[in-house]
Structure formats: C-alpha cells, structure tokens
Design brief:
Layout (H helix, E strand, L loop, with lengths): L6 E5 L3 H13 L3 E5 L2 H11 L3 E5 L7 H8 L7 E5 L4 H9 L4 E4 L4 H16 L10 E4 L2 E4 L4 E4 L2 E3 L3 H12 L4 E3 H9 L5 H16 L10 E4 L3 E4 L7
Parallel strand pairs: 1-2, 1-3, 3-4, 4-5
Antiparallel strand pairs: 6-7, 7-8, 8-9, 10-12, 11-12
The structure holds calcium ion.
The site of calcium ion (CA) has 5 residues, from loops.
C-alpha cells in the first residue's frame, strides 16, 4: 500500500451518505478523514492538512459556509461542496466564497470521482498559461496561449480579444465551475449585472465559432443560473 495517498477530509453528518462516500473513496485509493460537524471539521482540517475537502452545507452545529470562510482565510486546499440543496444561490455563494466545485445529491459514483479528480488536478496545475509555449488541448480544441490562437481540428478560428480572454480564462480553470461574477471580474473588472448579458453574448459567439450548437456541451458546460465550466479530457459524460 502506498503511503503517498491523497488525504480527503469528508465533513458530512448523514450516516448513510458518509459511509457511501467513504467506501467510494477508499475503494479508489484515497485516504479518508471523517467529521460529522463543522467544528470538528475545522480542527481536523488544521491537524491533518488534507489534499481535498468534501463539505456538506447542512451541518448540525453550523452552516457549512462557515467552514469555507474558515478554510479560505489561509488555505487554497480544493473544497468540493456537497449539498441536497439544488438552490442556485447556494451554489453561487459557495463558489464565490472559494469552493472549487459542487456536487448535488443524489450523485453517482462516477460523477463524484470525476469531480474529485478534477479538483485535485486544479490544485496541482500551476496556471499552464504562465508557462512559455504552453498549450491547452481538449479533444479537437487547442489554445495556444503565447500566440493567442485557437484552433478546432487543426483549423484556426477567429476570436475577438474578449472572446479569446474568456476562453483562455475558462481553460486555465478547466474542470471548475466559474461563476458569472468571477468571469466578469476577470475579463472586464466590473461587477454590474448588465455584464452578464455581455458575457452570454460572447459565450454564444465562442460556441458558434467553435462549431458547437446551443445546448451542445462539447467543450464548455453552461451551468444554468451559476456560470460556465470548461470540460476536462478525462471527464465522464
Ligand atoms: Ca447534512
């Protein structure tokens, strides 16, 4: 047994879900540390320094968002929010407070593992766009950050500066849902709500130029009411 397993802190109060996730993770070679409430979770986070946290929002002692606030004071550890709530506000709030991604209950084993892998990868990759000559490749889509060229199946496509910046920003965070306000802040440095419309128009143009139809999530997934997520190559569909 290897001793360099990823250590995952699971904060979840529902016994059956806790046992299910623990079983899925240990079966797949992860080491799991368990907590049933927010305060113990904070203590274990400090003492164990896990590689990833899976966090339920509805905890008996405090709102799971309190854990997020606590962890993000000093740490960039990836945090995957797990919640029965399908409320978009909760998703947006947790992402804006620093969560890397969310999984809505009920979830499948494959989906959970794909999100775990993506979150761990996000923390490993030092922004590829900063490395000279770095390229992003997803299926038949290639982004050359230096030359600012995007191609699909070897054919260059012509994007505006803004469209390129949006696509590059999403690709740098592939696998992670980026909220509308996060993208808008990064591209326009503004937070006015009118920018959401502007972002949607740009996204529609990017899709069209990449040859994907509305509703076709080949490269970018539209997380309705939340934001956008660039796919990763190893993602299960
Ligand atoms: Ca709960």
């Amino acid at each position: 047994m290897s001793n360099n397993k990823y250590k995952i802190l699971l904060i979840e109060d529902e016994q059956n879900i806790q046992s299910l996730i623990e079983a899925i993770l240990t079966t797949n070679g992860y080491q799991v540390v368990l907590s049933e409430n927010c305060q113990t979770g904070m203590r274990l986070f400090s003492s164990h320094q896990p590689d990833l946290v899976i966090l339920d929002l509805g905890l008996p002692d405090m709102d799971g968002l309190e854990f997020l606030k606590f962890a993000r004071q000093e740490h960039t550890t990836p945090i995957l929010v797990l919640s029965a709530r399908t409320n978009e506000i909760d998703k947006v709030t947790s992402l804006d407070m620093g969560a890397n991604d969310y999984v809505t209950k009920p979830f499948g084993t494959a989906e959970l593992l794909a999100r775990v892998r993506a979150a761990l990868r996000t923390s490993r990759q030092n922004s590829a766009a900063q490395i000279p000559g770095a390229k992003f490749v997803l299926q038949d889509l290639t982004i050359d950050y230096d030359k600012r060229i995007v191609s699909v199946s070897g054919e260059d496509i012509h994007l505006t500066q803004t469209e390129f910046n949006i696509l590059a920003f999403l690709s740098e965070h592939a696998g992670k849902v980026l909220t509308y306000s996060t993208i808008i802040r990064s591209i326009w440095g503004a937070t006015d709500s009118g920018s959401i419309k502007k972002l949607q128009v740009n996204m529609a143009n990017i899709r069209k130029k990449c040859g994907t139809k509305p509703g076709d999530n080949r490269y970018i997934i539209n997380e309705l009411g939340v934001g956008y997520r660039m796919r990763t190559d190893d993602e299960l569909i």
